[in-house]
Amino acid sequence: MSDLEPLAPREAVDLYLDARQDDATEKTIEGQKYRLRAFIKWCEEEEVENLNELSGRDLYAYRVWRRDGGYSGEEIAPVTLHGDLATLRAFLWFCSDIDAVPDELPDTVQLPTVNGDGEVSESTLEPNRAEAILDYLGRYHYASRMHTAFLILWHTGCRVSALRGLDLRDLDLDGDRPQSDGPGIQFVHRPDTGTPLKNKKRGERWNAVSEYVADVIRDYVENRRVSATDEHGRKPLITTKNGRNSRSNLRDLLYKVTRPCWYGEGCPHDRDIEDCEAANHRRSRSTCPSARSPHDVRSGRATYYALADVNRRVVSDRMDASEDILDKHYDRRSARKKSEQRRDHLPDS
């Protein structure tokens, strides 16, 4: 049974823009209002009268429509498409928070990465950037909630919903449980108490973790974790003063730490950081072209495994995704890189 509450697109946009009055400038709100007009126009053309009906496929159709000249009548530049989709995703997060769309829907809006030549490639978190972020977190925010959450997401490649569902009882940091051969984390499907796994019981698994990851989690639990019990009497691993972290809170955490200006690398987009909305306003973090979503972190980890030639069946089991899904949605290696890696496995090549 769905917990979603019906909401018309135009009404939802009005609510979103009103909420932005609290943390955005008038110029920013006007820009978002303009970009969301295109989405309203698309909804009218497609006869979408209730946001509950939207799917990831619908949002991809909107992306193609907008890219090819929907609303404006002319094809738009990649940087404009990026801005439109970033605004749409922020709007959908708001809709998720007020129970108008499923929690996972905003993450289906994949932002294109615009390179120096204005060309577009699919968004991901490159492994070297992930390592830079982890180095910064380990140096300046060791065993914090941010450090622990990002470390688990990157190290296991799990979905943000799986991270959110972890309890203290799911940890085996000493590797002393029966049949254990080292530290690990267990992902468990618990739909009756609010934390289902995407693939339900089939998605349940143990993920081995390194001694370093286990040490960070242990230090977080013993020294930094907010002691909390959720409404079902469970003890979540990642907590706030209000209990178990929400999906939107965890998504926002990722947008915060993946902005280069946050971890000391300046702005690669030639923005004045003091005037940048993405640098200074929480709700605008996702509009930074370098900010990355949970899906981007997951695709980055899958790409890392692919570059390291890790057995695809092992990756499939660890990340709870079929090999076909890994190839289609998560592997961000270039065609040239794939060819070079195949060469190493072929005779006389």
Give a brief description.
The protein is 46% helix and 6% strand. By secondary structure, the chain is mainly alpha-helical.
Task: Explain what you see.
With 349 residues, the chain is mostly helical. It has two domains: 9-122, DNA polymerase, domain 1 (Orthogonal Bundle); 127-287, hpI Integrase, Chain A, CATH 1.10.443. It has 14 helices and seven strands. A three-stranded antiparallel beta sheet has the order 3-4-5, with no helix packed on it.
Mean pLDDT across all amino acids: 86
Q: Spell out the helices and strands N to C.
A: HHHHEEHHHEEEHEEHHHHHH
Number of helices: 14
- What's the helical proportion of residues? 40-55%
How many domains? The number is 2
Oligomerization status of the protein chains:
single chain
Shape: globular
Instruction: Outline the biggest β-sheet.
Output: 3 strands, antiparallel
CATH architecture label name of the largest domain: Orthogonal Bundle
Using the coordinates above, name the CATH class of the largest domain: Mainly Alpha
Widest sheet, order of strands: 3-4-5
Give the strand tally: 7
Rg of Cα set: 21 Å
Strand content: 5-15%
What structural category characterises the helix and strand content? mainly alpha
Low-confidence runs: none
CATH topology of the largest domain: hpI Integrase, Chain A
Ends apart, CA distance between termini: 56 Å
